[in-house]
Records
---
Amino acid sequence: MDTAKQYLINNGIKPSVQRLAIMMYLLEHRTHPTVDEIFNDLSKAIPTLSKTTVYNTLKIFAEKGAILSLTIDEKMVRFDGYNQRHAHFRCLNCNKVFDIPLNYDVEFPKAEETKDFQNIETHVYHRGYCSECAKENK
Amino acid sequence: MDTAKQYLINNGIKPSVQRLAIMMYLLEHRTHPTVDEIFNDLSKAIPTLSKTTVYNTLKIFAEKGAILSLTIDEKMVRFDGYNQRHAHFRCLNCNKVFDIPLNYDVEFPKAEETKDFQNIETHVYHRGYCSECAKENK
DNA sequence: CTTTGTGCAAATTCTTTGCACCAAA
DNA sequence: TTTGGTGCAAAGAATTTGCACAAAG
């Protein structure tokens, strides 16, 4: 709770009840939640919460670099409050997103054409079938 | 043209006028076009073309593995007919998507939790500012 | 006070669906 | 004729926008 508050301040984000709740939610739920999931869960505790605020807040968080917005899903954006290096895996059947270890260094290539590019984020995504769904598809 | 036709057949896709045109478009335009871009450009040559057909067709292509669907963009899906290993870079300012070289091997990790996962596709995405936009932001 | 955040409703945009028509085997 | 592809219009779903109100300093 205080950790989340400090984390927001460190990232140049003014804490509010809503922002704190959303940040804490992301820190506690490593499930790459969607806007809807966050909204539905937090609405129980904060009945006045609006989905617009969830959208606004997540946008600010991502812009300030406090969280990562994941585009691995075709339909909607997902969010990740986790700050350690890892890759993602989305199951093409059940659509769940998993964290998976990243054992190698992902470096931005120093090619001629891209040497003036300013790289901010690097993402590694895998798509396939998770252990559960791979079993069923047999 | 014949190449595209053969390519479709090899991937188990029955060629039609529309499908051929879309496949050729993707092979000729390495710009990771969106549905709208494909539709607008091809409408000139095929005035009866419908956006639904573009959607249908791209979906089939991606399912059969003939093309790659890219989720690097927050708003819409992009498509890539290129079949060699490479990574992508999206400019956060101008939103263009670039191909960038992939100099290292991206392997699926053999961790305990993911050992039964069946990996189908691996994507490496970068986000940042392209040379043009990095210059402007100075 | 003044600035900034919140939340409702409406609008926008991308994508999918239902269904009728068309084309090829 | 039967199967599968195409295309229109409508529906659906995620996200954004405009604006009024509330909160914090």
Note: The interface with chain B takes residues 69, 71-74, 77, 87, 89, 92, 98, 100-109, 111, 113-131, 134-135 of chain A (CB under 8 Å).
---
Amino acid sequence: MWNLSLRERVLIYLAERGAITNSLKITTPIISKQFGTSQQSASRLLIILEKEGLIERRVVGRTSYVKMTQKGVSRLLELYLSLKMIFERPVKIVLEGRVFSGYGEGSYYMSLPGYVQQMQEKLGFIPYPGTLNVLLLSKDSIENKLFLQKNADIEISGFKDERRTYGSVKAINVLINDSEPAVMVFPERTLYDSSVAELIAAENLRKKLGLSDGSLIRISATLPPKMFYEGFKPNVSLMQSPS
Amino acid sequence: MWNLSLRERVLIYLAERGAITNSLKITTPIISKQFGTSQQSASRLLIILEKEGLIERRVVGRTSYVKMTQKGVSRLLELYLSLKMIFERPVKIVLEGRVFSGYGEGSYYMSLPGYVQQMQEKLGFIPYPGTLNVLLLSKDSIENKLFLQKNADIEISGFKDERRTYGSVKAINVLINDSEPAVMVFPERTLYDSSVAELIAAENLRKKLGLSDGSLIRISATLPPKMFYEGFKPNVSLMQSPS
DNA sequence: ATTACTATTTCCCGAGTAA
DNA sequence: TTTACTCGGGAAATAGTAA
């Protein structure tokens, strides 16, 4: 299952069992069963870990005790900190695509008071009447768009007037070309497929950024790590259960 | 330096470079330089990681891109979470030893108003006049006592009266036999060496716990992880710099 | 029971090289 | 330039076994 070298797997095992603060009573057959390896390898492993100064061993009568050294703890802590850097930093999601002219329906919706009022409340601005449509260029960008859709944290409710009903819209704050704030919207009902991103902002983005059809733009969103990694729950534990 | 199998090292490397959310442009010579291994190994590594479903590769023209799969991210996350369990849980420090009768000076100090008043404030009780002396049994216990001393978070100041000066005392909350609350004290000046732990409490611990000289007791303290691991700063980074 | 030595096998790495 | 094959040598794991 895991290809961590046995050294680290054993070190983690010992740490989990408390060998950081107290000597742990342990035998090579127990270790070998835990890791599905041979008793001989477990023995050699402890010898190596001791030789490398990662653990200390002490034999009392016929039982032996193992405790991690400072160096051993540092080893694991070091690994932990590099993984923490990866998993606890904000996650930047990037989408790239080209501007194109849509059906012009954006300006219609962005003018409806039923939406405008909520947007002013929830986005903090009155949207320029019109959406900037972006055709996403890569599979990555499309996947990331779907991911943002799932994690869009702003909810604009649907409503109805005398003529028809209007669907709800999810939205999330993004930056265009890493600097210009905008909001990516995910209408419950849309004319476009998943390869199109729709952006709104307080101002006319085409004008402000000098964009025209075909212009390449980069859309980025920054998510808190927890939001991102909830989807990746591992299904197998690191350690095998003893057989 | 590190004995993590190259699989994980490469996986971590890719994750650090953003391959969790976006395809990463990478070549086998770059990887081989990064890890001080051969280009052939780097190539094989990517093939293996791909075969195991941990990464996806895509060749566009003459450059190739790598992105981690859900499974690949789960792998690292799993490792991260098991290390997090180790390093972010409260750390229980255990000391074991035998009760013995000291010089009886404890009851003298524990009666001095200069200490008693501060203790009432800082510990929340008036100490029973007398300390419970414990002779620690193992090297581990002695090391852990020194560790607790460093991390004792209660500070009782020294003072002087007309006759002499009295030293400051550090203290930390502990449990005796995992249930009875007490406070371990570390007087700036003490008659005992580092193999003796001195405990105080609101009540007479000997009486309450039915202890007499030679009784075996277990003293435990629970520290927040951060406090504990500050002492273990790793001095080398996980990744080697390119040569 | 253990631990750990020696012998054998397996697996991994890097050189050479093709595409 | 890349990637990735084969192959030979060496490291590491297991089997057998002693203490």
Note: The first helix of chain B runs from residue 6 to 16.
